[in-house]
Structure formats: structure tokens, C-alpha cells
Amino acid sequence: MEKAKDFLQKKRNRVAVAFAAAVILGIAVYFMTNSGEDSAEVLYKAEKELAGQKREETAVGIQNYQGGLHPAFAEYSGEKTLSDLLFSPLIRIKQDGSIDYILAEDIDVSSKGKTYTVRLKDGLKYSDGSKLAAADVKKDLLLLGDGRSSFGFRDCFARLKGYDSNKLTQSEDMEGIEVKDDTTLVFHFTEPDPANMYLFTGGIGRTANRAKNKYLYTGAFMLKGQPANLPMTLEANPNYYDGKVKEKNILVKNINSNNIEAMLTKGNVDITQFQANKSLISRLKKSGVITLYHGSSDVQAVLDFKSDSKSAVNKKEVRQAVCYAFQKERFVTDSLGDSGQAAFSNFKEGSFMAGAEKEMYPYSKEKAEECLKNAGYEKNKKGIFEKGGKELSLTLKADGILYADLFVQQFTKDMKAAGIIVKTTDSGNYDLYYRNAAIPSLTSVGAFLDERNFQDEKLVSLNARLKKAEDLKEAGKVCKEIDEKILNESLTMPVYTERKFAAVGNGSHKIEVKDIDRPFSELLK
Predict the structure, then answer these.
(1) Cα(192)–Cα(4) distance, rounded to whole angstroms?
(2) Coil, helix or strand for 87?
(3) Which residues make beta-bridge pairs with 181?
(4) What does the alpha-carbon distance between residue 149 and residue 164 come to, in Å, rounded to a whole number?
(5) Contact call for residues 73 and 153 (beta carbons, < 8 A)
(6) In 3-state terms, what secondary structure has residue 89?
(7) Which H/E stretch holds residue 181?
(8) What is the 3-state secondary structure (H, E, C) of 53-85?
(9) Where do the structural domains in the chain lie, given as residue ranges?
(10) What is the pTM of this model?
(11) What is the CA radius of gyration of the chain?
(12) How far apart are CA 184 and CA 201, in angstroms?
């Protein structure tokens, strides 16, 4: 048996998120106050204070609240932010791969990776003062396996012994979760998988009356009253596991792409997180009263190569030529400005999964032409590469995502300069596909390979090894190999990653963001 702290030592939290081509994408705000490495960079420091900022409570801005508070049903970004404030998990896996024990005292993992023994901290209570014992934790966790809960939790539950995919609600006597005593639970999985640990990151809380927003909470805060919509007031949980909460109340307000600038610059919200376009970031900087922090998000724009033996991109050298010929850095600077950064890996930059630490195909027209010559192409009098009298012409499909038109313009121009003709299409008959994609997490590498049609024998073998990895350190090494294999073969070209921003109004609430990937509860508790 080994401690989960060692088991997770080198792991970084990789959670794939949904994407959207909108001004604001996500609002699940994360920060850190007491440990770990700083990951938030200051893009702009406020030069003056907001006028008229007299409110005592901190105002938090969220979007996409549709009524889901419990972790099992918090589907949208704003709901997840609220859920984190109200419900504490057993553990939290940090960005650097270490583990924070929240309600759990420790977790032991068996040598075969199928049995997890969880010991709870002493004296745990719900927000109403009632005892929180192992049997209660089991009952609360069973909600995460509910057929209506988020996919990530259901994926973990599917590997527990006794899980029934035909049932909407799992049985309370499910053999995969065994209650040993008041402070000990044993989880029995059907297969070893490093991702099993993510089951313990789901918030714990008792549903008293979901229809009326009545719960027993374990987080730093609890809902005041039973409001159905925003704004909401949260008050400090007097029985919070980690002691007294410094904020007595938090006011939660709604933000959207139309009001975020006004809400921030007028001091209606003190802190929020979002993803934005070049124009909005520019306006917030000009306001002078907003401090902007940024980190990398989980949304990426990519150029995929179609797996088709009849296509010219079936040859590795042609794919490499395309990668070398595109001026990625220029496109990101000119089109996205501060709202994004050039990407060079299929996984999150700097994560334990990423095999690349720098751009593998930096812009080089000369190298692009060399690759095409190695593929048997020669330039004709028009400056276009051809083979057997047929010019090299590639068909590009670009979804209607943010900056798609600008990408098509520069990409077409760059390819022509390197001797490649590019034509656009809206049909399914294409060689190249430019689109947004969620960066895969540890739990979704297999789906990522299937979705991108990476049916290479080597990659299939690596994915099988990943599932059998004894610990997260080994899993990370396998993921790095997968990333390097995809990049070496130029099976896809990462273009840019959208930045995740935290915005703080320079008012009476002195808030400093250290880490983009830490929860609100760590900042405000």
C-alpha cells in the first residue's frame, strides 16, 4: 500500500472543458492563497482605484447559472463555481500534481491499483452541525454516479464493482464502495486506472430538498435562504472543516458577454474569471481600474489532417511542410492579441502530460520547401510544387469559430508563399480541418485519439499502456510519448490556446490572484 500523496506527486490536474466561440467562455474561478507554485501572470496592473466602492461583502461574478448547485448536477461553469463554494471534496488534485486533503485525512492505494482506502478527518460535520460519517459520504458520493450527473464522475463510477449502467441511481449497497467504520471507506474498482482518483474530487453534500435548493453543506459557505435565481447571498459555514471562514458573506451576481465590462469597471463585481477576445481585453486594460491575471485555458484551436490514403497529406513530409510554412506566432499576435497564446502541444502546456516544451515546427519557408522536395515534389514556373504534372492543392475546412476568417486568410497566403495551393470548403471532403477542441484530460486520452482518428498502431499500444499505468508518474510518461508521437508524425498542428483571465476590481477588497487553477473557496475561506 502506498499513500495517495506519493501516488499523485507528479500529476497535474487536467480536466477537459467544453468550448465556445464567444467573448466569455468559462467562469469556474480558481485561485490559491497558501501553497503551491504561482501560475497566474499579471497582464495588466490597475493604476487607480474604483470610485464609490463601499460594499462590505465581496461580490463574485459568474455566468451560466441554470439552477444546479450540487456537484452531481452542476453542469454549467457558473454552477460549478457555486458548487465549489458550497461543497467540499475528499481531495483536490493541484496543478503541480500534488494533492490537497480536504475532507479526507489520507488515501491508500493498493499495489495493483484497484483498491483505494479513504480515511476521513476527525470531527467532520455538515453545515447544520450534524455528524458527517463514512456512511454519509458513501450516500453523497452515490449521487455522482447518478445518470444525470457530469460525465467525468460517471466515468469513474463505471469502473466501480457493482456499477449498473442501466440504472439512473446506483444502489446504496453497491459493493464498489464499502464502509468499514465511521471514518473509513474502501473503494473497489474493476480495473487499475490512474484516473480513478478523480472520483474523490467530487463535492460532498446532502440533498435535503433539491427542488427548493435545500442542502446540508460541507464547503466554506452555505446558501442563505432558497433563492431560485441570481443574485444570491452565501454566508459562512460555521461548521467548515478548516476552521473559521474570513468572509461572513459573499454576494454572487450574474455576468455575461454584454455586461462584464460595466460590472467590473463600475465595481458591481469584485472578481470574476472569463475568456475574452482581443477587443474586450483592450478595453478592460484602458479602464485603468481592473487588474488582469492570465493563465492557459483548456480550449485549443487545431489544424487536423484528414486520414485518407488519397489525400496528399497522407504523406508525413507534406504535413510537416504545412506546419513549417504557417506563421503561427504572427497569426496569434495579429488576430488574438493578449487573448491567446501560440500552442505547441496536444496537452496543456507545461502539464505532466505534455511531451513538447517548445514549438517543434517553428516558421521556416525553407524547411517547408525541403520537406516537399523530399516527398517528390518540384516547383513549376508558377512557383507551385507539383508531382507528375499535378499541382499540390489542399482543401481546407474551417468551422465558424472565433478568428476563423483571419486564420484562413493568413494560412492561404502562407501556403501559397511556400508553393501550396489552398482551397476552402464547407463539405466533408477536405484535407485540412481547422477547429476548436477541448484539450484532453487524463480521463479522456482514449476518446481524444478516437475523435481525431489517430488509429496508428503505436498510439493504440500507448493508450493501452496508459490504462495499465501503476501510478500517475508512469501515466505521465506514457502521455508524453503519445504527445511526442503525434507531433513527430505531424498528425495535427496545435495553433493557439485561449487564455483564461481573472479580473479583479481595484476597490476596497484587496484580492491578489496567485494561481488561476485554484477554487474560490481557497481565496475567500
Answers:
(1) 14
(2) coil
(3) 184
(4) 15
(5) no
(6) strand
(7) strand 177-181
(8) CCCCCEEEEECCCCCCCCCCCCCCHHHHHHHHH
(9) 2-289+506-524, 298-499
(10) 0.81
(11) 25
(12) 17
DSSP letters, 202-241, are SEE-EEEEGGGTEEE--SSEEESS--SSSSEEEEE-TT-T
499, 296 Cβ separation under 8 angstroms: yes
Q: What is the pLDDT of residues 416-462, one digit of tens each?
A: 999 999 999 999 899 999 999 989 988 888 889 988 888 788 998 99
How far, in Å, CA of 385 to CA of 235, rounded?
Answer: 67
Task: Report long-range pairs for 122-129 (Cβ below 8 Å, ≥24 apart).
Answer: 122/183, 124/218, 124/241, 125/239, 125/241, 126/205, 126/206, 126/216, 126/217, 126/218, 126/239, 127/216, 127/217, 127/218, 127/222, 127/237, 127/238, 127/239, 128/216, 128/239, 129/238, 129/239
Q: Which CATH superfamily is domain 2-289+506-524 in?
A: Periplasmic binding protein-like II (3.40.190.10)
pLDDT tens digit sequence for 145-172: 775 656 567 788 889 999 887 777 778 8
* CA 343/CA 146 separation, integer angstroms: 36
- Cell matching residue 205: 453534500
Domain 298-499 fold is: Dipeptide-binding Protein; domain 3 (3.10.105)
Give 337-369 as a 3 state SS string.
HHHEEECCCCCCCCCCCCCCCCCCCCCCHHHHH
Question: What are the grid coordinates assigned to 382, written together?
Answer: 508558377
